[in-house]
Design a protein that fits this description.
single chain, alpha/beta, Rossmann fold, Formyl_transf_N, transferase, phosphoribosylglycinamide formyltransferase activity, EC 2.1.2.2, purine biosynthesis
Amino acid sequence: MSKVKLAVFASGTGSNYDAIIQAINHGKLDAEVSLLVCDKPNAKVIDKARQNGTPTFAFDPKQYSKKEVFEAKIVDVLQEAKIEWIILAGYMRLIGHTLLQPFEGKMINIHPSLLPSFPGLDAIGQALETGVKVSGVTVHYVDAGMDTGNIIAQEVVYINDETTREELEQAIHKVEHKLYPETIQKLISRGESS
C-alpha cells in the first residue's frame, strides 16, 4: 500500500520538517514527504530538503502579481505530486482561498502557544511579555483566519519567573517536534479531516 503523501510548507530553518523526516525514518510516522513548498528561495529548509531527497518548490511571492496567482501555481504543483495532506511547519503566510479550498480539512498548522491565546507572529514573545505561567503548542486545522482553525491537539509548556526566551523556545520546540508527527500519524491513520 502506498504511503500518504505530505507536502510540508516552511519559510525558515525547517526544524519541524526535520522532526517529521526523523519520525518517518524511525517508523513513527507512516507517510512520505513528497514535496517541500517554501516562499523564501534562500531558506535553510531547502538545503535540508535537498539532503533528504525531498522535491522542492521554492518561490518568491514578489515575482507574482498577487497571492491568487502564486497559490494557483502551488495548487498545480501539489496536484501534480498527488499530495494528500498539507503540513504547515513555520510557513509565515496566511493561506488564501485559492489554496485553502482544494485542500480544506487536509491542511494543518502548528503554533507555539495554547490557542486561542497569542495567535500570529512571535507567540513566544507575546507569552513572555504578558507574564503567563503556561504556554505551549497547538496543532490545528487551517482556515482563512490567523491561527483560528479547529484545534486538534495541544500540549502545555510551563513558564516560571526565571524562564528566558531561549529556554522557552527550546521547550516549545521539543514539544512541537514530538507532538506534530504524533498528531499527523493519528490524523492519517484515521483518514480524518475537519
